[in-house]
Amino acid sequence: MIKIGVKQWLTVVKRTDFGVYLGTEEERILLPIKQVPEDLEIGDPLEVFVYRDSSDRLIATVRTPKIMLGEVANLTVKEVNGIGAFLDWGLEKDLFLPFKEQNRKLKAGDTCMVALYVDKSDRLCATMKIYNHLQIATGYQKDDEFTGIIYEIKPEMGAFVAVDYRYHGMIPMNEFYGNVSVGSLVTGRVLKVRPDGKLDLGIRKKAHEQMDEDVTLVLSLMKERGGSLSFDDRANPELIKTETGLSKNAFKRAVGRLLKEGKIRIEPNSITLL
């Protein structure tokens, strides 16, 4: 059975002047001539992606789009008109994002995180409401590493992440640090696998590894600013977060390490390199 929205292996069943047909004698689909490999013969298998062309006909392509069913991706808006937005997903026909599937106003040149779905007319469309299109994670364990994209931030809860671009995950606010926002690519480790299969995530490393990075960060900031910081470890947590991207506790630990190693001097409202 030919499936829309995914890559699949199909067999060449017929050759014409305008391309080859793939599939079976009962169910077949066209691969346009400009994409047909030179040495392709009837009976050969070929991996293709299936979607609908500008005439709403099913068609095959050997290109790999920037998003497939079951995935999320950041795509660029090429055009916005009276019915919605059209996104660049790496194929000849742009991907349609209806107004009802948008959660903010878009303009040409914007990027937005979307999932792919099949609408009632069996056409591929994009949606910015990606929560229900993510999957329950399987095979993850505590301390496994992950890569993901932040798609929503709720200050009272944390940051919601599409783990490996397809699974449910969340970074609790007490694990949230640094200059990250919706659309940011983040890496870290799994803190907990919940009973429902969703993942609690941390973007800070284990304590001893993280402190090394925090110390390096503080030293770099001081060097960039002429050898000192205009605040100390008793400063307001919001100021420390804004200036360094670290929590107050992480900053105090890094400063404490540097002080113990004799690399800094702490004065009222400043820290200076020695």
What's the quick description here?
This protein is mainly beta. It is built from 3 helices and 18 strands.
Key terms:
OB fold (Dihydrolipoamide Acetyltransferase, E2P), 4 domains, 39% strand, mainly beta, five-stranded antiparallel β-sheet, 274 residues
Explain how this protein is built.
The chain folds into four domains: 7-61, Nucleic acid-binding proteins (OB fold (Dihydrolipoamide Acetyltransferase, E2P), Beta Barrel); 72-130, Nucleic acid-binding proteins (OB fold (Dihydrolipoamide Acetyltransferase, E2P), Beta Barrel), CATH 2.40.50.140; 134-202, Beta Barrel (OB fold (Dihydrolipoamide Acetyltransferase, E2P)), CATH 2.40.50.140; 207-273, Arc Repressor Mutant, subunit A. 14% of the residues lie in helices and 39% in strands. The chain contains three helices and 18 strands. The protein has helices at residues 207-224, 237-244, 248-260, and strands spanning 7-16, 19-23, 28-32, 45-52, 58-61, 72-80, 84-88, 95-98, 111-118, 124-127, 145-154, 158-163, 167-172, 185-193, 199-202, 228-229, 264-267, 270-273. A five-stranded antiparallel sheet has the order 3-2-1-4-5, with no helix packed on it. A hairpin with a 2-residue loop joins strand 17 and strand 18 (270-273). Helix 1 packs across helix 3 (248-260). The chain is elongated and about 80 Å long.
The CATH topology of the largest domain is what? OB fold (Dihydrolipoamide Acetyltransferase, E2P)
Helix content: 10-25%
Instruction: For the record, give the distance between the C-alpha atoms at the N and C termini, rounded to a whole number.
Output: 71 Å
- The largest beta-sheet arranges its strands as 3-2-1-4-5
Largest sheet: 5 strands, antiparallel
Q: Say how many strands there are.
A: 18
Mean pLDDT: 89
CATH superfamily membership of the largest domain, which one?
Nucleic acid-binding proteins
Q: What ranges have pLDDT less than 50 throughout 5 or more consecutive residues?
A: none
Strand content: 35-45%
